[in-house]
Design the sequence.
């Protein structure tokens, strides 16, 4: 079984976070901002006590926070979000009637 990693302690303003390449330490409070698949990867990872902000996407697009990319049925991976706040930036909130937002989606065959 793969050991879960604690993934926090940064302000992450990126398009995509590859969970396997984020620095890990003992802090548990981070701000994470993005639009599409901004927490992405094929790893066992825990986000605790984070503020996860969805930002306004380009016209005609939607937002997705997590995307799992599991390639094999034998991989023991997960993305765990514990005691986090999932929020919308002001521009996304003011357009919430016209923009669809999702917690996550699969990207590979075994996700």
Sequence:
């Amino acid at each position: 079984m793969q050991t879960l990693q604690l993934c926090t302690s940064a302000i992450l303003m990126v398009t995509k976070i590859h969970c396997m390449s984020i620095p890990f330490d003992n802090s548990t409070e981070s701000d994470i901002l993005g639009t599409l698949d901004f927490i992405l990867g094929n790893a066992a990872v825990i986000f605790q006590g984070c503020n996860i902000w969805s930002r306004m996407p380009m016209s005609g697009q939607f937002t997705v926070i997590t995307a799992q990319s599991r390639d094999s049925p034998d991989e023991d991976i997960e993305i765990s979000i514990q005691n986090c706040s999932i929020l919308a930036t002001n521009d996304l909130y003011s357009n919430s009637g016209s923009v669809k937002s999702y917690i996550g989606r699969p990207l590979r065959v075994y996700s």
